[in-house]
Design brief:
five-stranded antiparallel β-sheet; E3 ubiquitin-protein ligase RNF180; 29% strand; 3 helices; alpha+beta; RNF180; ubiquitin protein ligase activity
Length: 125
C-alpha cells in the first residue's frame, strides 16, 4: 500500500508515494507498516504522522533553517501550518519505553490518500 500526503488547504503534495515508503515512521521510530496495527497503544499516533528527519527536501530545509532546534512545518505552497518538529525537548511514547520521533505532521491538517497496487496500475495505464 502506498500513501500520498497532501496539504488539506491547497492539496499540494507534501510527501509523495516514493517518499512515503521511507519517510513514515511509527511512534517508536520504526518503519511504518500501514497494513499492521501499531504494537504500542500510543494515543499520539491517532492524530499525528511521524516522519524521518530527511523525509523530503522541504522538511529537511525547514529543520536546517531552524538549526535543528524546534519549529513549525508549513506547506511549501500555501504556507499553512501542517506540523512541527522539536529536537530540544523529547516526549515519550504512551507506553513510556521510547522517545517519540521529533518530526510530525498533524493528520487534521493534511489529507492522506492510500493507494493499493491495483489502483496504482489503473492510474498509470
Amino acid at each position: 500500500m502506498v500513501v500520498v500526503i497532501k496539504c488539506r488547504k491547497c492539496r499540494h503534495e507534501l510527501v509523495g508515494e516514493t517518499d512515503c515508503q521511507r519517510a513514515l515512521v511509527s511512534a517508536h521510530g520504526d518503519t511504518l507498516n500501514l497494513s499492521q496495527p501499531e504494537s504500542c497503544s500510543s494515543g499520539d499516533q491517532d492524530s499525528l504522522w511521524f516522519l524521518h528527519e530527511s523525509a523530503t527536501s522541504w522538511i529537511a530545509e525547514s529543520i536546517s533553517k531552524h538549526e535543528w532546534t524546534k519549529g513549525k512545518l508549513n506547506c511549501p505552497h500555501c504556507k499553512a501550518r501542517v506540523g512541527s518538529f522539536d529536537f530540544v525537548s523529547t516526549s515519550k511514547c504512551a507506553c513510556g519505553s521510547v522517545t517519540l520521533p521529533a518530526v510530525h505532521l498533524v493528520k487534521s491538517k493534511v489529507d492522506s490518500l492510500s493507494l493499493n497496487d491495483n489502483m496504482l496500475g489503473s492510474l498509470r495505464s
